[in-house]
């Protein structure tokens, strides 16, 4: 099968001896940097590369928090800007005033349950927002890397070990908006030779995730001695990557990834949702050997629930990325973080996510059309 997103203008630059030359950014615009994954990438870049200038743009929707990055506010190589990626004048201003040469685009609406009830806001944030960034970057003309963060859900959830050239077959409104954003990226790469790299990641878990996703929500409920929820019978499978490993993947992709490339970022270890929650129960010290489901409540399944997302990450591993945090250690770390109630204060409305089927209705200003 031919590649869906074939390399354009080639390839990574090579030195005089033919070896690959890593890309070195100077000034990075990182959208969604006060969110879960984005904040960990910001932390890595600011600490590891003090000579890089990192500009964070985030509108602080319900699942983001300024406290995710505020410990870094005293760093001279970080600039924080609260704003919306759909604001063309703001994006234009930041690109020019900060001399941006690299965009890392994490900002997105991501919760599948929410997308069934607020699908137009997902299109506005994920598709229109991405298009605004691309058009601003095209007109600006000085972007050397545009890393678009997509998801494994664009593949659909029925086939095994999807490769980067597999056909996209999204099944829920969230995944459809991410696939649509990818297609716009592809158009800009083809038509305008934009230096775009796309990533598609497995489920990510760890500290700082708003507790409406399975692992984070289960950890918070269990910390309160309340049962965690399972959709359906719990046999749906997911592959999980700990958030610091995901941040390391973006470090590798930005510096060593090929322009025009797509990179899967995934784990080889697959877990059913029931296994995930039972592992959270065990790490929380609540396991009852006589009743493994003592702290589990089974609820109605969501409207559409893909069975699994198995992806092949061998292409990324060839660049040097490996998972370092085991599932067992990652779950212990995550449970410990959510046990500290002070960490939850960054989201004043976090209890809204602690329900079987969370829905975040879009506010009027979240939809621009």
From TrEMBL:
Q: Which UniProt keywords apply?
A: Lyase, NAD
Superkingdom of the source species: Eukaryota
Q: Does the keyword Secreted apply?
A: no
- Kindly give the InterPro entries that the UniProt entry links to this protein: dTDP_Gluc_deHydtase (IPR005888), NAD(P)-bd_dom (IPR016040), NAD(P)-bd_dom_sf (IPR036291)
Residue segments, region Disordered = 1-20
Single GO molecular-function term?
A: dTDP-glucose 4,6-dehydratase activity
Domain NAD(P)-binding: residue ranges = 29-334
Q: Which residues form the signal peptide?
A: none
Cofactor names from the entry are: NAD(+)
Q: What's an example Gene Ontology biological process for this entry?
A: nucleotide-sugar metabolic process
* Name of this protein: NAD(P)-binding domain-containing protein
In its UniProt entry, the species of origin is given as: Gracilariopsis chorda
